[in-house]
Structure formats: C-alpha cells, structure tokens
C-alpha cells in the first residue's frame, strides 16, 4: 500500500499530496533528493510518509518531530525521534518537510548538526508560471489537475471535451498544461493550450495531438493541469473513444475524480463472448511493484496479484480472465489498487465492438449507518439511485447493484420504476443482497412488453423489510444494449437524497448552498463527426417537490457566447430524453460548432443526467453527466 493520504469525504482533497505527486513537482523532488545526500527530515506537518513514498530517492537518516506526542510514531518507515536529537544526526543536510518554510530555516539552523545544509520543499515547487496563487503555494487552485486515458493507435481515437467553467467564477486567463505519457511512461509531448476567454467549450483530439507532434501510435495517459482556475479545483471532462478505422466501436466516460484509492469496484466480469481489459495507469513517479495490485471476485476475499509491475506513469493492460479464470458475468470484480492509480478505465470487446467505462472509488471510511434505517418519514423514500430505462423498443436496460465500500456486507434494495410523466409503474423487492451477489436485473423481466416504449427511469432505494444495513453510498452498474446492432454502453454512479426540503447529514447535496437551494448545472457536449449528442434528464424526488421542473437548455459556442435557449418541463419523478437538434435550429448548432455545448440549468430542483452520442447506425455512447 502506498503511504499517501489523498481524499476523505469530510476534509476533501489533500493538497499536500497533490503538491508532492504532480509530475513536474516529482522531478523537483528527485533533484532535491540528489542535492540533499544523507538527510535528516524534520516533519512539522506529518507528510514525511507521503514524501518518502512518492520520492524514495531520499537517503533519509531519520525523521524528527517537534510534537512530543508524535515521538515514536512510524513515519515513512522511520520511528520519529525528538527534534532535540537532531544535532547528533550524522547527515549532510536537514530537510524541513514543508513548503514556504523559509522562516523555519533560520530558527532551526542553530539546532542542526554542524555543517549540515538547510533545505525545504520549496526546492521542489512548481515554476511560478504554473501557479494560480503564487502567494499561497498549497492553495487547492494551484493543483487543479486530472489524468486522462488517451489513445490514438490506428484503430481508436479519443476526444476530450470540457468547458472553461472557471470563467463563471471570475477566472480571467485559464491555460491547460498538458503532458502526454506513452505506454511505458515515457513523455511523448508537453505543451500548453489556452482555454476560451469566456465559459466556452474546449476540445482536445488525440488525432490532432499526434499530428501536431509527429507521434506514432500511442495508448497512454494525458496529465492535465488547469492554470488560472477560480472557484473550482477539479478538472472535469467527458472523453469519447471511437473507431478511427471506420469500425463500429463508440463509447464515452466522464471523470472528475483525480484521487488514487485503496480499492475500486464496479468492474464487471466478462461474459462468455466478451473480453474485459482493465487499463491500469500508474499515477505517480514511482514504480508499482509486481503483485502490489490485485483483482478479487467481489466478496471472495481471495485477491490474486497482478504479476506485472508498472513503471512510473506507464500503462498496463490487464486481462481480467487471465487473472481470475472462471469468473464470469454477472459476477463482479474488485481492484485492490494500493493507492497507485486514479480511477481506471476498463474495455469490453465483443465481436467487432468495443466499449469503455470506468470503475469507481470504493470507500474505506464508511460503515453501516443505523440512522438511515430510522429516517424520518418527512424524508420520504430517502436515498435514491436513479438511472434511465432507455426506449425499450430499441434498447435493453440492465442494472446491477455494486458494493462500493470496503465494509459493505449487504444491500437491502428495492427497484421502483417510473414513466417519463412521473407515474410509478412497478416495484420489485430485490432482497438483502450479499456483498458477493451475482444479481443483474434485466428490465425486460420487470416490465410488460410495450411499457416504457419511449423510455423512462427507475430508482434503486433501500428497503429494510428483511433487515440489512445501509451506508448511504449506494452504487450500481447500468448496462444498455441495442437490440438490433448488439452495441452496448455502461455507466455507474451513486445515490443521494433528492429534492426535499428536509435534510439528513450532508444530504440532499446541492450545487448552491443547502436545501432548499437545490439547483442543476449540467454539461452536455455537442455531437461530432456526424454523430448526434443526446442526454436523459431525470427529476428524482425523495418526497413531494415541485410538480414540474423549470429547466433551461442554454446553447453556448466555443468562445462562451450564449447563442440560444429553450425551455423544458419535466414532471416530478419523471424524465426526458433531450436531443439538441430538437430544441435548436441547424443554424444555431452550426454556429456553436463541435466545441460548443449545452448548459442544462435549473434553479428549482436538482436533476440527474446521463449523456452520450448516437451515430445513427446502431452505435451509441452513454455515461453520467457532470456539473459545475
């Protein structure tokens, strides 16, 4: 397990981790380690463990602490000693493991060993030109970063789409620092691109990058750093993967999670006619040792190590069936990642079609919450996990609940189904599902033929009629299949309490303040290469809310100019399928261009959405949307 602390649900992201793990800062740490020689580390902020984990090049004599209560703690493989012992250390230098620690150097120097040089982590800072707030180095906005699965190999291309949403928070000049790594972790290219001056769309095509830098085929990862950000320290994007050789493959994923995790879940085992490849991409400048990561059939508690190691920033394709032979759909697979990787992608190949989706962070800090069983009746149905049921004449919709917490032993669940108009059509109690369950519910087995011919949605909810536990971190995998072409897409997400004035702990969540400040701001990219974009918007409600949403569809161009808007009303507990071409003219969409987008805005309720593109020939992509 990599000794790093990345993110928790109460404090959010660990900025010190990002400051140490940033690829450019990692190079600075390596230079600092070479300069330091034999070094004693003074650890005022408790980051010696992550420091030595992310840069083992330091020849550390020991770790010293000022807090008497920390004496004897294990930090970075060293038993912490009292700072008063520092003067006896036989070292060439003393490193103060802190940024902006210039004043501490002067104060500590008199207690250092004779002749020892005094160093700080300022020697590994990012260049000032890469900082959003140079006055405060550990400002989260200085590390608005993310990784992207990026591929251009003659068969597949990737297309990143986002927007300069920081402009809406007052950012004036946002730039994207980009570094592209190849399969073995080598740097293929590095560059900067300006974001639009306003809240415009931004597109990065793998084919354009390959041509720009004269590269050969590649499958690797792109490191993205937004410089000049404001109001939001997360880089969110949608990523399309499509066949560059006129094949039938098409898929999309969304990502806003830049935090390595101990475990990931939501990886489906292959069907008999499928091959599932897990793309493992090292997120750090230190190698992943062979066997340090493993796959386990969910609930088996018998992990099997991944035999190959992974070089710094390298990419490894792991055949799930080769690691776990005999484990097949509808079994689920858990990745024991050891905090080495950001949320990985997986690729499913069946016949001539390939689809890509992502696994999710499995929480280690959650246990059963008895309060959920005793939720006040005013919270209605409480936690909901809504998902689309696509028009059943064309599509099959399959849902599989997925444990998403290490200590989640069972899931007591019910399935509620609603029409687009908000009418409840059916419900099915799924039982108290054990952690290692193999249940995947085909909506064809729940609904009569002809029902939801035009689509609707369903919701997973907790149901304790036969006991069980709940933690509020309800997740599921959703699989959608075209009945004629066999094309499939899948997505996964988690539940919340939706659209109720009553609250429970930090639910319902809202983009602006607490309930009743519930609102929606969702990003829908436009189509590209002749493909048409679409989304499904769901208006879930745990209890009674407004009868209809007051939703605005706002069309923006690549520069952030608002070109047109259209109104949409969605019934409470209902849904709507939205194609931009049905709401905006050909001229308006042409003016927006392929880098334009639709902002879905509602100040009266919180909507939940899934988006994708349709190629008109039986191929489509589908994943949950992101907001900002």
Quick overview:
This protein is mainly beta and 628 residues long. The chain is globular, with a radius of gyration of 25 Å. The two termini are 33 Å apart.
Strand content: 35-45%
Q: Please give the oligomerization state of what you see.
A: single chain
What's the N-to-C terminus distance? 33 Å
Mean pLDDT: 95
Radius of gyration: 25 Å
Number of helices: 8
Low-confidence stretches: none
Strand runs, count? 43
Shape: globular
Q: Reading side by side through the largest sheet, how are the strands ordered?
A: 7-4-3-8-9
Assign the structural class, choosing from mainly alpha, mainly beta, alpha/beta, alpha+beta, or little secondary structure: mainly beta
Instruction: Report on the biggest sheet.
Output: 5 strands, parallel
Q: Give the proportion of residues in helices.
A: under 10%
What are the SSEs and their pairings?
Layout: E1 7-8, E2 12-13, H1 15-21, H2 23-36, E3 38-42, H3 48-54, E4 59-65, E5 74-75, E6 78-79, E7 81-82, E8 93-96, H4 102-108, E9 117-120, E10 145-152, E11 156-163, E12 175-181, E13 187-194, E14 201-205, H5 206-213, E15 218-227, E16 237-243, E17 250-255, E18 263-268, E19 275-281, E20 294-297, E21 304-305, E22 315-319, H6 320-323, E23 332-336, E24 345-350, E25 353-358, E26 360-362, H7 370-373, E27 383-389, E28 395-402, E29 410-419, E30 424-434, E31 441-442, E32 456-462, E33 475-482, E34 488-494, E35 496-497, E36 520-525, E37 532-538, E38 551-556, E39 562-568, E40 575-578, H8 586-592, E41 597-602, E42 608-614, E43 623-624
């Amino acid at each position: 397990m990599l000794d790093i602390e990345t993110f928790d649900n109460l404090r959010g992201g660990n900025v010190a981790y990002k400051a140490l793990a940033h690829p450019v800062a990692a190079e600075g740490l390596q230079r600092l380690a070479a300069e330091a020689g034999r070094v004693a580390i003074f650890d005022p902020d408790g980051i010696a463990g992550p420091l030595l984990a992310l840069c083992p090049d330091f020849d550390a004599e020991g770790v010293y602490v000022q807090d008497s209560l920390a004496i004897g703690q294990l930090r970075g493989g060293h038993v912490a000693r009292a700072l008063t012992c520092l003067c006896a250390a036989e070292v060439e230098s003393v490193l103060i493991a802190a940024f902006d620690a210039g004043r501490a150097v002067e104060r500590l120097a008199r207690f250092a060993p004779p002749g020892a040089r005094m160093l700080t982590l300022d020697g590994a800072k990012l260049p000032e030109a890469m900082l959003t707030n140079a006055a405060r180095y550990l400002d989260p906005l200085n590390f608005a970063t993310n990784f992207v699965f990026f591929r251009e190999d003659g068969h597949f291309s990737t297309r990143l789409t986002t927007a300069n949403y920081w402009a809406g928070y007052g950012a004036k000049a946002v730039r994207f620092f980009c570094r592209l790594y190849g399969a073995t972790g080598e740097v293929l290219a590095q560059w900067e691109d300006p974001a639009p001056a306003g809240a415009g769309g931004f597109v990065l095509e793998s084919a354009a990058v390959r041509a720009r830098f004269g590269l050969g085929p590649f499958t690797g990862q792109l490191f993205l750093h937004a410089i000049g950000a404001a109001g939001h320290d997360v880089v969110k994007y949608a990523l399309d993967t499509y066949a560059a050789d006129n094949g039938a493959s098409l898929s999309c994923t969304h990502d806003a999670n830049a935090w390595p995790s101990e475990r990931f879940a939501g990886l489906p085992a292959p069907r008999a006619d499928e091959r599932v490849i897990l793309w493992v991409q090292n997120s750090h400048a230190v190698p992943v040792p062979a066997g340090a990561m493993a796959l386990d059939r969910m609930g088996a508690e018998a992990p099997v190590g991944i035999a190959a190691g992974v070089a710094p920033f390298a990419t490894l394709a792991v055949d799930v069936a080769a690691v776990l032979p005999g484990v097949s759909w509808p079994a689920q697979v858990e990745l024991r990642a050891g905090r080495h990787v950001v949320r990985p992608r997986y690729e499913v190949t069946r016949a001539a079609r390939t689809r890509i989706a992502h696994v999710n962070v499995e929480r280690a800090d959650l246990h059963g919450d008895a309060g959920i069983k005793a939720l006040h009746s005013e919270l209605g149905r409480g936690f909901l996990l809504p998902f689309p049921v696509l028009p059943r004449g064309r599509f099959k919709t399959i849902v599989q609940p997925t444990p998403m917490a290490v200590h989640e032993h069972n899931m007591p669940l019910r399935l509620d189904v609603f029409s687009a108009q908000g009418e409840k059509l059916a419900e099915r109690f799924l039982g108290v599902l054990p952690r290692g369950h193999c249940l995947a519910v085909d909506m064809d087995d729940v609904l009569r033929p002809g029902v939801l011919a035009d689509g609707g949605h369903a919701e997973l909810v907790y149901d304790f009629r036969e006991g069980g536990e709940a933690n509020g971190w309800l997740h599921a995998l959703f699989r959608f299949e075209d009945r004629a072409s066999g094309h499939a897409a899948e997505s996964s997400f988690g539940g919340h309490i939706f659209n109720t004035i009553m609250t429970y702990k930090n639910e319902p969540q809202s983009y602006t303040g607490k309930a009743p400040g519930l609102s929606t701001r969702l990003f829908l990219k436009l189509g590209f290469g002749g493909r048409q974009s679409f989304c499904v918007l769901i208006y879930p409600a745990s209890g009674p809310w407004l009868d209809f949403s007051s939703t605005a569809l706002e069309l923006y161009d690549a520069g952030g100019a608002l070109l047109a808007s259209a109104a949409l009303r969605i019934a409470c507990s209902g849904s709507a399928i939205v194609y931009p071409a049905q709401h905006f003219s050909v001229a308006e969409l042409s003016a927006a261009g392929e880098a334009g987008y639709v902002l879905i805005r509602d100040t009266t309720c919180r909507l939940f959405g899934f988006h994708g593109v349709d190629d008109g020939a039986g191929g489509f992509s589908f994943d949950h949307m992101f907001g900002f």
